[in-house]
Amino acid sequence: MSNKQLNRRNFLSQTIALTGAGLLSPTFGFADSNSHRHPNHPLSKITFKNVKLETGFIRDEVEVIATETKLFLVVVENGKITEILPNNSAADAIDAQGYLMLPAMKDMHIHLDKTYYSGPWKARESKFRTVKELIEHEKEVIPTLLPHSTERAKKLVELLHSQGTDFARSHVNIEPTSKLDSLKNLQKALEAKEAGFGAELVAFPQHGVFYSGSQELMREAAGMGIDFIGGVDPYSIDGQIEKTMDFTVQLALDYHKGLDIHLHETGESGLKTVQYLIDKVNENPSLKGKTYLSHCFILGAVDSKTLEATCEALAEAQIGITTTVPIGYNVMPIPKLLEHGIPVMAGTDCVTDHWQPFGTGSMLDKAKTMAELYRYNHEFGLSRCLGIGTKGVTPLDNEGKQVWPKVGDEASFNLIAASCSAEAVARLSPVKQLYHKGNLVFESGGC
Description:
Largest sheet: 8 strands, parallel
CATH superfamily of the largest domain: Metal-dependent hydrolases
Low-confidence stretches: 1-42
CATH architecture of the largest domain: Alpha-Beta Barrel
Structural class: alpha/beta
Distance between the termini: 15 Å
Strand order of the largest sheet: 6-7-8-9-10-11-12-13
Number of domains: 2
Number of helices: 13
Shape: globular
């Protein structure tokens, strides 16, 4: 028997032993969340040994040239990290085998409610080119998706698990074709997966607020357990910026929700929409820190002076940007946004549906794309790119001080076959295990 096979057998033996003692859920591969203990019934104490953590940067006289790591003992209890100790050979500990502990990934822009994933293969139909043409096409597609949407959403969550993601912000269609059924079906899927997955929901008028007559449906959805009021291209779809944005902002204020607006427009209307939203948020300070623009391609289309002024205004209004780190479009000025302290998060958007078929479900993939686009091919830059897939959480800060994990942090983390964050991003290192609040929710068959 090889050393790898022996380690694998020992790992499984320890896990099974802990399961028998009531300390760990008996879950391997794509698990159904019902096999996990519910977060309201926390797991007992779990100890991990041989956990690799980043401890600092190694520098020469010019730059960061490597990342320092050490092995530790990490104790998890009631869904929290309660101790981080010098490594030892504790007999009752799970052997992490020197895998690197990294924060669980956060997919901050996805559509879990409408997907072809786990169903028959189908590519996008190229004859539908504009957003309005795709909306009309979607009116035909949605009725074919709804009967399967709960089960497909569960499968999509399992795909995200396999890529190290334990949380998503999902936009969910609210429009006359699906009415509130897309929302209800997705909520069923998330309830079934809640022991291993967290989510925020955005009520998304995909077919326009006034273009499709979705105002009353949006009001009803706002009271059904969603977290954000969404919107999409108010000028090109509804034909008006002010009326649509006023309705959307007021709905968020009335129901004490955040805002997350899809904005694809790259012309004058795109910039006017950004400026109008900034003004509305400044008029209503309760929306600061709770408002996001998704995509916002206009930021990649303006001149440098306009970009600088817009970034300053976005930062002042505390409006964040969620991006798919797109290629083949205007390159988004992510470094400039970060330079201004604007929160930038990423998402996988459509994994595979009638809009596009290219999604992998991997936030590490998004971090790698960011590194390639902006030539962050060095140790420091690669390590910083990790944050776009973890909602800003990185093991080391810019000065190389260890800032994660800390005692008291939520025990949501990956064990990854990599020497450091930079390697994980550059090489798309495989996720060996994912834990959500102390629950093991995914394990690779190749541990």
